[in-house]
Amino acid sequence: MLLSRRALLVALVLTTLTLASTACGFAAPTAIVSDEGMAALVAKPVALPDMALGSDTAPITIVEYSSLTCPHCTAFAQNVFPMLQSRYIDTGKVRFVSRDFPLDFKAAAASMLARCAANGDASKFFEATMMLFKQQQDLVEHTTDTLAAIGAKFGMTVSEVEKCVKSDDMLDKLQAAQTFAHNQLKVGATPTFFINGAKVEGSMSFEELEAKLLPLLKH
């Protein structure tokens, strides 16, 4: 089995967060942090390189924490993100950062695969994660075959996919980034967004998201 060893390790990762599981996330701890203070925390470098689309000088930065087995994250990726990209990211108004917050070992393995497939190329990372979101049901029910099939689309052999999802180094970094997100940013559910530091939990329609963006563009 491709994921048997990963299952135990990632289970330990999630256990260290001491969180109560819910449908598509965790029960988040309560804390009040100013948008400015939160923006500074969100901007801190994390253990894994950020995967971002858009201009570094965009007036708005959106950071999304997502899990590749979360249905609400899939809804955002398929129904909202394409319009956000065409109207705001590609036009230089928004820089969009995707960060991993896997809720189970299958999501963790998928996150690791996406990073291996991308090999540091953000556009390939987003391409891989979109494939994984579109095949979410297969990812959950036929994890090994789905990871191998998507890896193949990026030129990865079955052995390369296996090596990727068994990388202790990447898993350690994934754990460190997730622990930081939970402990410092109080991320407890997916998707969670930070829009110029302001925290927004849960999936949104494009109209709801746009209503949060437009006032920031008037400043």
Explain this structure.
It is a single chain. With about 220 residues, the chain is an alpha+beta fold. The chain has a single domain, classed as Glutaredoxin. Helix content is about 55%, strand content about 15%. The chain has 11 helices and 7 strands. The protein has helices at about 5-15, 35-45, 70-80, 80-90, 105-120, 120-135, 135-140, 145-155, 160-165, 170-185, 205-215, and strands at about 20, 25, 50-55, 60-65, 95-100, 190-195, 200. It starts with a helix and ends with a helix. Mean pLDDT is about 90; it is low at about 1-5, about 10-25 and about 25-35.
Averaged pLDDT, please? 88
Number of helical runs? 11
For the largest sheet, list the strands in their spatial order: 3-5-4-6-7
Shape: globular
Share of helix among residues? 40-55%
> How far do the termini sit from each other?
54 Å
CATH homology group = Glutaredoxin
What's the gist of this structure?
54% of the residues lie in helices and 13% in strands.
Write the topology of this structure:
Elements: H1 4-15, E1 21-22, E2 25-26, H2 35-43, E3 51-53, E4 60-66, H3 71-79, H4 81-89, E5 94-100, H5 105-118, H6 122-134, H7 136-141, H8 143-153, H9 158-165, H10 168-183, E6 192-195, E7 198-201, H11 206-217
Helix pairs in contact: 1-5, 5-6, 8-9
